[in-house]
Amino acid sequence: MKKSLLLAALIVTFGLAACEKTVVTPPATAPVVVVPGPAGPAGATGATGSTGATVAVPGPAGETGATGATGSSGAPGYDGAKGSTGATGAAGDTGADGKKGDTVIVVPAK
């Protein structure tokens, strides 16, 4: 059994090696680079243009344009920053003692 399995493996290996086809690719051709030729001669100079006409007396000034419409009111401004709370004031002085005397109670009439 061991030898028949080994023999079968060798036959398959040689059979596949005999069927292998090697592909040969030809070398790639170098790309053709097109180089432009030298520049040609400069062209001839063009003819000079004619002078424009001049006006001896300018025309009258145009009329003043109409007054534009009044602009719209602006947007309201932002509220300013709020101030911080003031510090607590100093304690007041103690008042003077009142005079000693009779107590009067006033009762309203009905």
Automatic annotation (TrEMBL):
Residues 42-94 have a biased composition (Low complexity). InterPro entries: Collagen (IPR008160), Collagen_Structural_Proteins (IPR050938). Keywords: Signal. The keyword Signal applies. PROSITE patterns: PROKAR_LIPOPROTEIN. This is Collagen-like protein. It comes from the Bacteria. Residues 42-102 are annotated as: Disordered. It holds the Pfam family Collagen. Residues 1-17 form the signal peptide.
